[in-house]
Amino acid sequence: MELHVIDHPLAHHKLALLRDRKTPGSLFRDLVDELGTILAVEATRALATETIVVETPLERTQGRRLRSLDPVLVPVLRAGLGLLPPFQRLLPTAKVGHLGLYRDHHSLVPVPYYRNFPPLLEERPVLVLDPMLATGGSASEAVRQLKSAGARMLTLVSVLAAPEGLDRLGSDHPDLAVVVGAVDRQLNDKGYILPGLGDAGDRLFGTT
Ligand code: PRP
Ligand code: URA
């Protein structure tokens, strides 16, 4: 599995604010959005481009444009929705699929409840968006469902990852690319990331 951990002063700064329990919901949403922009730049680094000719107001020159079919963005509901706007701003023609999963509080096993993927998954780069990679169960299930629907070029994008979740993904999906804002220390006995930032969905949507 190819893992990229963002190392950038702006990401460190925003992540520290995001972790702070005193950060209110509106700022939390903005910070997820801003970190999403940094993650999006990194997660799209491998997209193929081709040369094109451009007429500037002064002369003819060469530029580059994306070569592959429009990418597909798949936010994992609910918390993945917080990462969707920055990815859509940078990839305005991207298709958007949705996948509803929630973690059973006792077993921590992901329970699927909604799925709507666009066509031609096999020909498009697919970016799975979920701010939290804890046990890895949800991300692994999301990737499994996308692969069974035909996707082959898959990248998971998360704000925070636990080592346990990365190990799980590496063994379930060795062909996956993963881009994360930081790798934290460990999970607690309830499957929360330590030091973490709490429940991302609850903080994004005010359901605490
Ligand atoms: C959170 C998070 C991930 C999942 C990560 O979702 O957004 O999808 O937990 O945990 P895992 O790696 O152990 O599977 P949650 O189930 O709380 O649903 P929500 O986004 O609707 O709050
Ligand atoms: N989901 C979250 O939102 N936070 C965690 O720490 C673990 C799973």
* Number of helical stretches of at least 4 residues: 6
Name the poorly predicted regions.
Answer: none
The tally of structural domains comes to 1
| CATH architecture descriptor text | 3-Layer(aba) Sandwich
Summarize model confidence as the mean pLDDT.
Answer: 97
Radius of gyration: 17 Å
CATH class: Alpha Beta
CATH topology: Rossmann fold
- SSE order: EHHEEEHEEEEEHEHEEEH
What coarse outline follows from CA principal-axis ratios? globular
Helix content: 25-40%
Question: What structural category arises from helix and sheet content?
Answer: alpha/beta
Beta percentage is 25-35%
Total strand count, please?
Answer: 13
Secondary-structure map with pairings?
Elements: E1 2-5, H1 9-19, H2 25-43, E2 49-55, E3 60-66, E4 72-77, H3 84-90, E5 95-96, E6 98-103, E7 110-116, E8 125-129, E9 132-133, H4 137-148, E10 153-161, H5 163-172, E11 177-183, E12 186-187, E13 193-194, H6 200-205
Parallel strand pairs: 1-11, 4-5, 4-6, 4-8, 8-10, 9-10, 10-11
Antiparallel strand pairs: 2-3, 6-7, 12-13
Helix pairs in contact: 1-2, 2-3
Bound molecules: 1-O-pyrophosphono-5-O-phosphono-alpha-D-ribofuranose and uracil (URA).
Residues 79, 132, 134, 191-193, 196, 199-201 line the site of uracil (URA).
